[in-house]
């Protein structure tokens, strides 16, 4: 297979796993990174001649991807994974909303103008763009629902801003396709909380993705601490990577929003898994005050049956995902 896939934000947590899956299937991969240092680091870790990189310092800049696409007319698939995922921000509009929306529009405009041969585009969105109302048990969120936050509401704080940024960016992508009628077909991948190990141990030693930081926070609890009540739908990063390949390889995925979830996790469940599999944490981590069932009962239902049928993937369990995540943290002495 000699197809060439472009992936923006190639040094990211999910993007690295996607790149590994692509290379394993024989694709050639061109990744965008913010600096040559990051690109060289990736190449030295992957050690694969089918991986190369281009430097795109600012994905919001007009024509950010133009040169990359002009120089590589062999690219036939464009995966846009680059987007901000932070909650601690001073200016929600400037640091979250505008980068997410503008970055998406810039990427698609570059493909429209300089990648006429590109037939498939996949945008990494989020369940954050889909949920109707997390706190109403009778509500069902699925591939048809949208987060109904306004731009003004989004500016409240970083968390609300992040949730809204994913919806605004994804809507911008679908609106772009409807308006411009490009040569390419669009799909989006909408993962929930993403757990699982970093592809390379080196990336587990420092700050990790916001979702995985939740696991690290539990591991750092002391016996006298209280276990924070945290819950949400989850998926393993390796399944997210597989879904991105299906999203451009399968005709069934054309024009679809692919919701990725395999049930709900809670900190109660995370503590239970850690205590059962890692004796060194059995007496260190305090016991939760609530059960898993109590933590998740008051939240909405998710229906991803349409996406599950398109994907045909047997998902990695929450137990395996947490075990692999914790084992890596222990291995690199991150906890």
Written overview of the protein:
- This protein is α/β, with parallel strands linked by helices and 335 residues long.
- The mean pLDDT is 94.
- The chain has helices at residues 13-24, 36-46, 66-71, 92-114, 151-154, 158-180, 210-219, 237-249, 267-277, 292-296, 305-311, 318-331; strands at 4-8, 28-33, 51-55, 75-80, 120-124, 140-141, 185-191, 193-195, 231-236, 257-260, 264-266, 301-302.
- Strand 1 (4-8), helix 1 and strand 2 form a beta-alpha-beta unit.
- It starts with a strand and ends with a helix.
- The longest helix is centred in the first third of the chain and has 23 residues, at 92-114.
- It has one domain: NAD(P)-binding Rossmann-like Domain (Rossmann fold).
- It is 41% helix and 16% strand.
- It has a 7-stranded parallel beta sheet with strand order 3-2-1-4-5-7-10, sandwiched between helices. It has a 3-stranded mixed beta sheet with strand order 8-9-11. A two-stranded parallel sheet has the order 6-12.
- The radius of gyration is 20 Å and the shape is globular.
Key attributes of the depicted protein:
single chain; 335 residues; alpha/beta; Rossmann fold; 7-stranded parallel sheet; 3-stranded mixed sheet; 12 helices; 12 strands; globular; Epimerase_deHydtase; NAD(P)-bd_dom_sf
Whole-angstrom Rg: 20 Å
* Poorly predicted spans: none
CATH architecture: 3-Layer(aba) Sandwich
Which descriptor suits the 3D outline?
globular
* Number of extended strands: 12
Bin the strand percentage.
Answer: 15-25%
CATH homologous superfamily identity: NAD(P)-binding Rossmann-like Domain
Strand order of the largest sheet: 3-2-1-4-5-7-10
Element order, helices and strands? EHEHEHEHEEHHEEHEHEEHHEHH
The number of domains? 1
What is the quaternary state of this protein?
single chain
Q: Percent range for helical residues?
A: 40-55%
Q: Could you say what the CATH topology is called?
A: Rossmann fold
Roughly what is the average pLDDT, rounded to an integer? 94
Q: Termini distance?
A: 41 Å
CATH class (first level) name: Alpha Beta
Biggest sheet descriptor: 7 strands, parallel
Number of continuous helical runs: 12
Structural class from helices and strands? alpha/beta
């Amino acid at each position: 297979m000699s197809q060439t896939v472009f992936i923006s934000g190639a040094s990211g947590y999910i993007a690295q796993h996607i790149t590994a899956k692509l290379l394993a299937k024989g694709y050639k991969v061109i990744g965008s990174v913010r600096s040559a240092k990051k690109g060289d680091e990736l190449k030295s870790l992957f050690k694969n001649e089918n991986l190369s990189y281009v430097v795109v310092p600012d994905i919001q800049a007009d024509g950010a991807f133009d040169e990359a696409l002009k120089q590589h007319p062999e690219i036939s698939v464009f995966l846009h994974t680059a987007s901000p995922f932070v909650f601690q921000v001073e200016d929600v509009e400037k640091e979250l909303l505008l980068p997410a929306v503008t970055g998406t529009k810039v990427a698609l405009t570059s493909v429209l103008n300089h990648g006429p041969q590109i037939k498939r585009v996949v945008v990494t969105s989020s369940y954050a763009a889909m949920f109707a109302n997390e706190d109403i048990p009778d509500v069902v969120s699925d591939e048809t629902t949208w987060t109904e936050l306004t731009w003004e509401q989004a500016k409240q704080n970083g968390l609300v801003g992040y949730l809204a940024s994913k919806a605004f960016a994804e809507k911008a992508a679908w609106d772009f396709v409807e308006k411009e009628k490009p040569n390419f077909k669009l799909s989006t991948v909408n993962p929930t909380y993403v757990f699982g190990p970093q592809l390379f141990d080196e990336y587990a030693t420092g700050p990790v993705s916001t979702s995985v930081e939740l696991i690290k926070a539990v591991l750092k609890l002391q016996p006298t601490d209280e276990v924070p009540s945290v819950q949400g739908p989850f998926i393993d990063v390796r399944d997210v990577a597989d879904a991105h390949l299906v999203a451009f390889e399968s005709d069934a995925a054309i024009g679809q929003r692919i919701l990725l979830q395999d049930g709900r996790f809670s900190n109660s469940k995370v503590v239970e898994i850690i205590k059962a599999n890692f004796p060194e944490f059995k007496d260190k981590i305090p016991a939760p005050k609530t059960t898993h069932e109590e933590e998740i009962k008051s939240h909405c239902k998710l229906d991803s049956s349409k996406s599950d049928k398109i994907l045909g993937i047997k998902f990695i369990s929450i137990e395996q995902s947490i075990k692999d995540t914790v084992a890596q943290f222990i291995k690199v002495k991150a906890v």
